[in-house]
Structures are given as structure tokens and as C-alpha cells.
Amino acid sequence: MKKTPVKKLRITAIVEQANMLKEDPHFEGKTEEPSMEHDVLKALRRLGHEVTVLPVFDSIEPIVEGVEKNPPDLVFNLAEQFANDRRHDKNLAGLLEMMDIPFTGTGSVGLMLCRDKALCKQLLATWNVRVPDFRVFPVGRPLKIPRRLKFPLVVKPAYGDGSEGISNASLVKSEEELKERVAIIHERFTQDAIAEEYVEGREIYVGVLGNDRLTVLPPYEVRFGKSEEEGPVLATYRVKWNKQYREKWKIEFGFAEVERKVWARIADTCRRAYRILQLCDYARIDLRVTAEGKIYILEANPNPDITQGEEMAESARKAGINYKQFIQRIVSHALARQSLPST
Known about the structure:
The protein is α+β, with helices and mostly antiparallel strands. Helices cover about 35% and strands about 20% of the residues.
């Protein structure tokens, strides 16, 4: 079958300044370390698109000036924070929305719903999507522990990302440990802490592509290995980002083998969450599945890591979508949204 040629577009990539390289500001060279920015921009250029890079840190003026000076057909949004605050990711999307500029990924409303972990869980629970029971402990307020919460609990920053602030000590088994961990989150991250009931089971990540019609990608799983000592049971920061640590504890990431009936329910749950949370173009849903087959959504990740070789891209590859096709699908989904009527 003859392939349909990709329409050449002017694409501006918004990149966090912290991820920029002085010696390679346009991400055109080679890199030894995995880099989402390098991989995405390389794929876009190989697809024939004209790509420019716009760094963002703590001022909106360069963004406004950049897109007004060289109006793009599309902005590929690779920024997850503004002024070192992840809670402002929604404002970057909101700025592009106000300027009526097409961009990839979830919009300001969806980013707001997902960034606030408590709000995300409350909304999903309202629509009868199962989430762990939880409680938020705001900064500067007395810590009151509701009786309904059952230990052990997982304590983490209420607005974190990429397992920031999550370690083995995040799994607390008593009121004293809970108070200590909440105090650490308040002090180190200057934000509220959320404590949710620990769900024992398989930890599975599911990528979803699309808007009107959704494609649920093959599931990925983190397998916690066994050792003579008690090893990690959470996807902590070190589990996610430290290869030597994973090797030490025999922790592996790989495709999940799931019974067909259970997979059908997982896929349906992920589709529902995707729509409830107003996710766009691509996202990843993190969940746990108990031995009894109960499905609990832990988090929803709009605009997740799409580095080549990481979970989302690997799941797409297993579904028969190579990396260039994967990136082009995100572009195509974003452009298709612009033609939809406003609601």
C-alpha cells in the first residue's frame, strides 16, 4: 500500500530552559544520554517538518514574541513546568489557548485536573472509577488523621511528578511515621501532602492515544524483584530513574501479561478516566490491579515521557507504531482537535 505523504508543517517546540544545551540549542546533534527533546525533535525533522525551539523558564514574553514573530502551524509542548513550579504547566497551555495557537497534548483544564492529585481522585471517584482512599494534609494546618484511613499509607507531594518525593520511607505504617513523612513533604517541597491507602498488587502503566476515537496501547508493568532483605514495593524516584538501584533489587520494567477479561476492564477503565479528566492526544494511566482483579487508578499523566525506548513509546512500538509514526500521530491528533467545534 502506498504511504500517504506527511504534510510539511512549521512546528515550534516549547522546551524547558533547564533541558537546553548551550552547545546544541536546537537539538540537532547527537547525545549519549536519553533525551525526550532530542528524540522528539529528531523524529519531527525526519518526518519533514520545519522545527524551531523556544525555551521557557519564568517569563511568558519570549513565548509570546517567539510565536508571534514566527507563527507556527503547531506548537509541540514539551514543557512540564514554569518558573520551576509544575503547578504552572496548565498556565502555559492556557496561554497558547488564549493566543489561539494549536498545540500538542492536554489543555489547561485537563492539566489542572491531573496535577492536583486529590482533585483528580475526587473526580474519578465521583464517576465510580475506583481510586485508593486518601486524605490531603495542607501546609500550615494541624494534622488530623481520619479513622477511615487504613495503614499502610503512601505519602507524597500533592502536586509532584515523576515520583518526586517518593522513597521507600513514603510507605508509612503508623500515625507517627505518617506525621514524620508529612512534615518532610511540607518542608522539602513547600506543598500539601497526600496520603493514600497502599494497594497491594501489580503496578501497570497504560498509554492512550487519540481524542474522538481512542487507542489503548499494550500495558507496561514494573515488576518488583525479591531479595533476602525487604525490597522496594513502590515505584520510587530511584526505582524510576536509577538503573543501578533497579539492578540491585532485581526490579524490571516490561510488557505486562494480563488475562483477556481483566485487560478488557483495564482498557475500559483507562478510556473512561481519559475522557473524565479531559486528556488530549496522548496520556498514560498508572494503576494497580489486585489479586482479586480490582482495578485502582493511582495517577493520570497528561503529556507523559515520550522518550524513545521508554514505556509510552515502547507500548506504541508493540502495537505496530514505530517512533516516527508515534510522534506523527500526536501531531495529527493535535491538529484534528482544532477543527472540532467548541463545547
